[in-house]
Every structure is written in structure tokens, then in C-alpha cells.
Amino acid sequence: MNFKRYLPILQWAPHYSRNQVTSDLIAAVIVTVMLIPQSLAYALLAGLPAHVGLYASILPLAIYAVFGTSRTLSVGPVAVASLMTAAALAPLAEAGTPEYIAGAVLLAVMSGLMLTVMGVMRLGFLANFLSHPVISGFITASGIVIAASQLKHLFGIQSSGHNLIDIVGSLLSGLADTNLPTLLVGGGALLFLVWSRRYLKPLLSKLGLAPRAADIFTKTAPILAVVVTTLVAWALRLDEQGVRLVGAVPSGLPSFTMPSLEPSVWSQLAVSALLISVVGFVESVSVGQTLAAKRRQRIDPDQELIGLGTANLGSGFSGGMPVTGGFSRSVVNFDAGAETPAAGAYTAVGIALATLFLTPAIAWLPQATLAATIIVAVATLIDLPALARTFRYSRTDFGAMLATIVLTLVHSVEAGIIAGVALSIGLFLYRTSRPHSAVVGLVPGTEHFRNVLRHDVELCPKVTFLRVDESLYFANARFLEETVMDLVSREPELTDLVLVCPAVNLIDASALESLEAINERLHDAGARLHLSEVKGPVMDRLKGTEFLEHLGGGVYLSTYEAWQALTNRPAIA
Amino acid sequence: MNFKRYLPILQWAPHYSRNQVTSDLIAAVIVTVMLIPQSLAYALLAGLPAHVGLYASILPLAIYAVFGTSRTLSVGPVAVASLMTAAALAPLAEAGTPEYIAGAVLLAVMSGLMLTVMGVMRLGFLANFLSHPVISGFITASGIVIAASQLKHLFGIQSSGHNLIDIVGSLLSGLADTNLPTLLVGGGALLFLVWSRRYLKPLLSKLGLAPRAADIFTKTAPILAVVVTTLVAWALRLDEQGVRLVGAVPSGLPSFTMPSLEPSVWSQLAVSALLISVVGFVESVSVGQTLAAKRRQRIDPDQELIGLGTANLGSGFSGGMPVTGGFSRSVVNFDAGAETPAAGAYTAVGIALATLFLTPAIAWLPQATLAATIIVAVATLIDLPALARTFRYSRTDFGAMLATIVLTLVHSVEAGIIAGVALSIGLFLYRTSRPHSAVVGLVPGTEHFRNVLRHDVELCPKVTFLRVDESLYFANARFLEETVMDLVSREPELTDLVLVCPAVNLIDASALESLEAINERLHDAGARLHLSEVKGPVMDRLKGTEFLEHLGGGVYLSTYEAWQALTNRPAIA
């Protein structure tokens, strides 16, 4: 057993230096300050009591420090996973009830189990089937749904729904009940946060702060909004004005929580847990890879599954909610100079201290402030220019992206992601089932062959070189037969057909039968079939089949060799 | 509107010669004689009254002559589609009841609608997703299930079930009730048919018959078994001995039948109708293509969908059952010298005459005789050597084939086919998600580049040529990033990386982002990314993207050009 693979902590802990300790400690303090409001806010978004967000930011961070391969990834509750948690639990129980909270625990445990098992079985590649356009469309649409879902907290009204249509409908009908003090607090926080994103950094720089410090300080601005609005709420007794506060939070560290073992609940949440796991993993790995590349480090996606899986198990068993590697917190951690995963462990200590000592103050925090921090945070997720970019590059990718966005907005997050994946796989199969092919000729003065329609090339009568630009497999085997027979019926003089195969990465059993059929039909028509540039792995397979025995022509290493042999022209050299 | 496309009859009817009329008429007589017992038998297999098989062999043949593109395909009830019909209708009603018969009519109409719509929308390519190994495994397993299901008629006992386990179990428990006269009739017919398959043709040749005539006469042997056993049953009043006969058949031509319009039945049969349509289409097209190729003719798969679709509509509206192009009858039609689809129309007339005048005689036909003809017919479908052949060539294809066979045998035909398709698509995606790649070098004295591990090639320090053997798309985009970064981390001296792209048939939006990332990371590492042998269609897409602007290196038409430019070696010529 490879301990270093399964315990990446063994790779860095033995060389952990004093300098690194200092860097990690500084980063941890900054991330802790940023994480407190974020954790509370995302718990709220998931329909959970605010302290659950804190619980989910203690044990998971410590565990990830042991099992994770990214030096700087910071795990915890994130916006999209919280939205998916809320959507998954909505049919199960009323938000905030004990059954609902137990459901969140179970989701974290199930997600943890799934990720860990996938990691041990090295199934990380499955996440690749979430294409860039689908994941980007999904995150944009989720951002829009999340922002809309928080408006009710800003206006202090009741509303519900897990897709844009329901949310907006419910919001409009409740708008008459707007609570003005809530709107003032929430709107004020929102304006401050928007302002600080845009103007605080230049201001701080002007005041003489180093650019990096200014940057980090700007990113922790939410804590300022939290402190000020909490003080205002306490001083003015805003709860008596109808402003909803976070309210009494159990103080003390989380205790061991046993997840439900009810099979019906497990099967009800299985699909949701899988989607939360895969989406969270993709988000986490792309953040981790981006940060690792900046410092010439590497992350191991399969081990990341184990890191995230164990972190989720830790979250569930300590009364938390599904967690994953978050973008904004990881960037802050990175920019603040974290050098090893120990920074995450120190952050866990910071959050634990907050849970122990700050809960009386948190009780006075207006929910509208948290809603404002969420809206500002998810605004960065919405990437509309990506739509235009994808549209320009590929209609196919755009189609999958648009389907994901539309279904996420009008139906549900789960329908959106499933439709996106199914559509992108379907479109890929469709594309490969009708491959591009080209008759090629010799580029004069070289040994290189290109498409006769695009390049000025030499041809040879009676010998046709056909390049097929796809692996030959069941979906296009019959298409190949039709292409070749069409070509042959158009050229009655043909004596030799060379199938140029540099793009053929695979010939499966169906395609082999089609090649046999082509060979036989060409033979009947008095022509020979040849192959050229067959790749090593493909050739290995063909050896030992009857096809090679039956083949009317030869197999040439290069197309130029075939050209020389079949046209009887002297070699250049 | 292209009339000739949608009405292939316009292509041959205007030139229909007297010679062709004669050939077609002779073929029609022979096929009619063969088709009568076959039609009755397959209706029985589908759990329908025997005359339904005759109804399904009149109008469909006439319609296919107008809309079909194969000159020699003969449509009608076939073994596999009949088994699938029985499996589809079993949950709906008791076999033979009016609801059951109405269900068969509806299946034919739905299948007809689906095929016609697919034809008009040119969706024939969808059938390609049934790979050769899956369809071959499916037909083998269906043949076994069909043969087993007919044993009850041979033994004259009751039994039921739509998979091998149920059928054999039910058969064993009923064996004590075997009816001896039935077994004698059925066993006798079976022995005669097996004998005639093996020895009748040599015998006839010895007696001086021309080989082709001997062949055709041998294939119509079932009619002899039918005539003899019918006479025996009538002469000995075998029905009084417990031998089950076909019984009273309504005489006269089929009349117009209105299918059920109950939405619940439609939705219940939708999946079955689709599977029957697709499997029937695949079977039909492969038979049609094989026969067409022998005479240098072509068939148009999309128009074939319309031909089969309208034939099924005709079958349904005239009280029939799902039909498709059958292998054995088409081969007989072809061998008997049919030259145009008119032969099918003449056959329809022959079957209509039989329906009008032979029904009193058919009433005395023992069911055991029909069971014997089915068993002998499906024995040719079972192709066990194909399993070994597929196993040797490709474990992946074999896996999909085996799953299809096992599920068809132990569960149901529908589960078998669905599992086979899903598994073959899944395995294909898995293979493309982990593409083969190779560092390549120059084959000395040529301009050709091959794998350094397989060939003795020239290399150049600091410049690496990496050939990726797959289209770059979402499923392998991240894999590409990992491959390249692994390579770079192993070669610290590297200054230039050339991605050799002859096998890259597609770069989707996800892969484009990965290439951007690779380019950027190489730049950070002080190296340049180049591309070579990018194909026309791929290059067209890349033009206009930011990737080409950001690209650190160049794009070379051929890998040899890149070699010359980057290694500063003189050209050969």
C-alpha cells in the first residue's frame, strides 16, 4: 500500500519549516475572518440554521489537510452545493426542521461515501463528462437562481421555490409586505459590498497599503458589514421592528451526529447526493488545478476525491452539510500566502474558536446582511460573455450549454445538469457517427498528403487516397461503407483505394466487419483495398484477424510509401 | 419535392420489361409457397391467431413494392420481431384475446409511425448505435429463447414465460403431461426438416435437378411438412387425440382495422414499439445491403425507414402485426430470380389467394408442425462462433455482446437490447476519455514520424513531438492537460512542444480551454506550444479564436515542416 498516495500529508509534513508555519498562520487568520460570514450565509441559503455552516467549516478543513493533495484549496460550504442541498431537501421536509437538518447531515455522509469510493476505485475521470460549457452554464444559471432566492431576505418577505419562475412569482406576490427596516439594513449592506468590490482596493492603495494587502483586506469586507449591521441591530433592537435575525445559536463545538439509516431516505437522496458530489468535485478540482499550476505544483484528481470524500464524511458526522473546495476562499488563502494544507487546519481552529465564543454576538446578525453577502458573492459566478464565446466557437457546445441554463432556470438544478450531460454526450456521438472524410493528394515536393479540395496537390489516376477523420466504430461503420461505395461508384476506373488512417484511433468489431465488407465489394468490383499509416495499437489488434489475410492490397507504414508502390514513381531521395 | 426519392417505384417501373415480369412471377410463386407456413408460424410465436400472420403478408408487401428501395427484400412477420411482440403484449392481455390482437395491431401502427417519421427526418443513423456485436448477440439469444418457447407445442403441453429461465422451468414442470400423438407429429416434422436441410439438396442434385432449383426446392420443404401433417391430422382426426390444430380461420381478405386510441396503451407500448422498429430496421437494412451489393445496387437507408414504416402502417390497418424484412425469405426471393419489388406485390396476391381459398385446409394444420418449422428456422440465427471471434478481437465488444446475450436470456429481450446499447456507448466513451498518445520521432530518410517506443526514429533534444490519438473533447480534455504537464515535468530542458494533430478530428470548447491552459502553463515554464497537421475543419474553427493569438509557437502544415523550423536542419530535397 502506497501510504504517500493515500496520505499526502506525509509528503509535506516532514519538511514543514518555521517560515511555512508563519505564512500558514497569517493566511489562516485572514481566511477565518472571511469564512465566518460566508459559512453562516451558505447555511442560510441551504435552508439550514446558520451554525450548521460553522460546523461544516471545522472538521472538514482539518481532515482535508491530511488527505487532500492541493496545498491551498479551502473546503467548506459553497454557494452552488448549498443551493443543490436546498433543492434536494425541499421534497423531504420543511426547511429548518429537525428532519431537514438530519437530511443535510445524510447528504454530506452519502456524498462523502460516494466520493471516497470513487477515489479508491480511481473513477475521477467520470467527472470529465461534465463538459466546460455545461459546468459553466450550470454555474451561471445557479448564480442567477441563488441571487433571486436571496431577494426575499433583503425585502423581509416570505417566498419559496427552487427555480427562477417560482421564485420570481412568489416574490412579486409578496412584495407588498416588504419590511422597510430590513430593506434598509440589507440594501445598505449590499451597497457597501458592491462599493467595496469596486472602490475599496484603489482607496486603500491610495492610503498607502501594499497592493496585495489592499486586495486581501477588500475580500474580507463582508466581515465589516456583518459587524456593523449586528451592532446596529443590537443597539436599535431591530428584531422588534420585524427585522429577522440569525437568532440564538447553540454555543460550543459540534458533537458527533449519527446519520439516518432509513433506506427510503437514502434512496430518495441518492441522485442528489451523486450530483452534489460530482459538481462539487469538478468545481474543487478546477480551482485546485488552477492554483497548483501557478506554483508548479500538481494535484492528483483521484486522491482529491478521497480528500473531499473524507471531508464530507467529517462534515456529516459533526452535524454539518455538504462541503467542497470553494473558489473565493481558496483564492484568498492562496493570495494570503498559505503554503501547506496546515493553513486549512489552523483555519479550522479559528472557526472553532468563533463557534465557542462569538455565538452570542451572531444571534444579533440580520439575515438580510447574509443575503447581501451571498448576492455579491454569486454575482461573480455569472459569466454571460461565456455564452457568446461558446456560441461563436461551436453551436454544438452552445446547445448543451443553453439547455443546461434554461432547464436550471425554469425547472431545477438537477434537471439542468442531467440534461446538459446527456445532450453533450448525445451530440458528441452524433458528430462521430458522421465523420469527416477527404480524398487526399501529395503536396508537391513533400511526402505530405492533404485534402484535394483545400490544397493544390498531385493526384494519380486509378488510385484514390481516402482519409477518414474518425475512429471507426459501430456508430459510423455503416457510414464508412456508404462513403467508400459512393466513391467507387463515382470512379469506374478505380483500381486501388488506399484508406489513409492516421486519424483512426480504434477499429472495433463492427468496423472490422464493415472493412471486410468493403474489401469484398472492392474485390468484386475489380479493385484492391490498401491501408496506410495504421497506428501501432490499431495494427496490434488487426494482426491475427482474418481481415488481413483477406485484404486485397497491402498495409503501408506511410502514405508516401503507398504512393510510391502504387504509382511506380521514384522516391525523392 | 423529390418524388423519385420518396417513391422509388418511379425508378424502375417505367423500364419494367417482359423478361423481368417473368422472373418476378416465378420468384413470387416460390416465395408464396415458402411464406404461407412461415406467416402462420410467426403469428403463433407472437401469441396471435395464425391468420394474423397471413394478413401481415399481404398489404405490407404491396406497399413496400412502392416505397422500398431494395429490389429483393421480402417483408412480413419475422422471428425476432414476433418474439418481441409477444414480450411486449404479455403484460397487456392474455395471448389470443381480442385485447391482445388489438395490441398487436397497435404495435404495428406505432412502429409504422415511428419508422416513417424517422425516415422523413433522416434519422436512419440512429440504428448505427446498435453495434454488430450487440445485434449479433441479441439475435443469437433471441433464437435460443424462441426455440425454447416452441418446445411446448412439440410436447403438446402448457407453458409460459418470455425468458429462458421461466420457459425451461415451466416446461420441466409440465413435461409429465406430454401428448404422445403431438410429439409424434411435431417430432416427425422436425426430423424431416432437419434432414431436408442437410440431405435434400444433394439428393435432388443427384436426381438430376439443377443446383439452383435444388436449393430453392429445399428451402420450400416446410410446405411439404405442412401438407403431409395436415392430411394426417385430417385423416386420423388427430384433434380427438389431443393434438392441437390451428383451428377455424376466418376466410376472406382482411378488412380495415382501427387501432386503439387509448393514450395509456400507447404510452405502455411506446418503448416496445421503438425497440421493435429499430431492431427490425437494422435487420432489414443489413439483409437489403448484402443482397444489393451482390448485384451492384444500392439501397437508401433513410428511404428504407419510410418503406418499412408504411408497410407496418399497412399491416396494422389491415389487422396484422409488426413486420420487417426477413433474412430467409429475402434470400429465397433473390435466389429465385426476383428482379424488381414487383415480385413482392405478386407474392402479396399469392398470399391473398391462399387466405381466400386455403383457410379450410389450414384449420387442420397441427400447431406442432409450425413449432417445428420455427425451431429449424431460428437455429440458423444462433451464431455461437461469433462470440469466440469477438472475444479474440476485442474484450470491450465482447463485454457488450455478452451483457446483451445474458440479459436477453435471463431477463427479457428489451432489457438485453437496452443494456447492450448502453454498455457499448459507455465503453466507447470510456475509451475515448483516456486516449492513446505517443512521443514521435522522424523515421530516418523520410518525412514520416512514428512512435519512439515502436520504431527506430531520430529525436531532437529540447523539442518534443507529441501525437495525441483522439479527438479532443470534454471527456479527455483534462486528461490531455495531465499528459502534457507530466511530460513537461519529466523533461526540464524542453523548449518546444509540438502537438501532432492528424488524429484530432474535433476540438470542442472544453478542449480549447484546456489547450489555452496548456499554452499558458508552458509559457510560464519557458516553453512554447506548437501545432502540426491540424486538419482543415479543425483549423477553420480555431481561426478567429483567441487561442491562436495567444499561442506561443506556430501552426505547421506538416510535422516535417515543424521539425525543419524548430531543429534548423536543412530539407532533404
UniProtKB/TrEMBL annotation, chains A, B:
Pfam families: STAS, Sulfate_transp
Alphabetized UniProt keyword annotations: Membrane, Transmembrane, Transmembrane helix
InterPro entries assigned: S04_transporter_CS, SLC26A/SulP_dom, SLC26A/SulP_fam, STAS_dom, STAS_dom_sf
Membrane topology value: Multi-pass membrane protein
Organism superkingdom: Bacteria
Transmembrane segments: 21-42, 48-67, 74-94, 100-121, 133-151, 171-195, 216-236, 265-288, 343-364, 370-388, 400-430
CDD domains linked to this entry: STAS_SulP_like_sulfate_transporter
One Gene Ontology term of the molecular function aspect: secondary active sulfate transmembrane transporter activity
Major subcellular location class: membrane
Residue ranges constituting the STAS domain according to the UniProt record: 453-566
Locations listed in the record: Membrane
A Gene Ontology cellular-component term: membrane
PROSITE patterns, per the entry: SLC26A, STAS
Coiled-coil parts of chain: none
Gene3D superfamilies: STAS domain (3.30.750.24)
Protein name: Sodium-independent anion transporter
